[in-house]
Amino acid sequence: MTEPPDPDSHDEGGLLTRRGRRWLIVVCVLGVLVAVGYAAAQARSSSAGRGPAVAQGQVRLGPDPGEAVPDYLAQLPATLPAPGERAPALVQLDRELTTDAAAALAGSASPAEVVFRVPIPRVQTALRFEILPAAAPVAAALDTARQRAGHAAEADASRLTDRPAAVARAEAAAYAGPCACVVALVVSADRAGLEALAGTPGVRAVEAAPVGVTLPELALSPLLPEQTTAATPLPDDGPVP
Questions:
Q1: Which of 16, 57, 115, 176 is the 20 to 30 Å CA partner of 51?
Q2: 172 & 214 share domain
């Protein structure tokens, strides 16, 4: 007598058994659930607490999007390193400065990076980040960085269209001269040096990274002078010069 075919046996085409297909589906579903759970856990950990949020190997300095400015400022003293230890820190200004003024403000805490922004009323302009050479005189290094920011704005103007292109052209025109465009600096100093900077006229906030963090690990989002209540986007409905 011929035995009935086993529903879980391989067919002639070598396809998976029914049981094999069921297990494959189960494994795929479990894999998706694990991936979703991991992503959710990562999102919770990166948004919890005020400490520097670590994501993809970066340490964030600056307020979180939408964060209340008074809350952000109140927590900055706790970020400073212990006495005698040095750490990189984001020095955020209460108004944009020229490169000469920024060099004078930095004093003995030589900047390692500068953040530029061209202030145009009610127009969103780009934050431009420039690394500074360690051995160069600070004022000269900052001025060279200003010129590099201008070249970047020119490149943006050539590839963009409409309002974004007009904004980039206005930025490039501002960077062509000694503009008041420095909005933040990254320095490395000990606690005493950072406290002295925090008390310097023109400095609005100093936030330190953990000791041992290097410059490439930093993700910078400085508080802007116009952000007085919350770290929310600035208006972008003004005329472009």
A1: 115
A2: yes
Give me 11's structure tokens: 């067919």
Tell me, yes or no, whether 4 and 94 share the same domain. no
What CA–CA distances, in Å, run from 52 to 5, 60, 75, 84, 95?
Answer: 63, 5, 11, 21, 24
State residue 176's pLDDT score. 97
Give the residue numbers spanning the domain of 30: 1-48
What pLDDT is stored for residue 185 in this prediction?
Answer: 98
Secondary structure in 3-state letters for 71-112: HHHHCCHHHCCCCCCEEEEEEEEEEEECHHHHHHHHCCCCEE
Higher pLDDT, 128 or 51: 128
Opening angle at CA 48, ends 91 and 229, nearest 5: 50
Helix or strand or coil: residue 53? coil
Predicted confidence at residue 189, as pLDDT, reads: 95
DSSP string, 4-42: PPPTTS--TT-PPPHHHHHHHHHHHHHHHHHHHHHHHHH
The residue behind tokens 């953040």 is: 115
Bridge partners (DSSP) of residue 92 are 184, 205
- Residues 128/152, Cβ–Cβ less than 8 Å: yes
Is 31 part of any domain? yes
- The per-residue pLDDT for 58 is 87
Whether 131 and 157 share a structural domain: yes
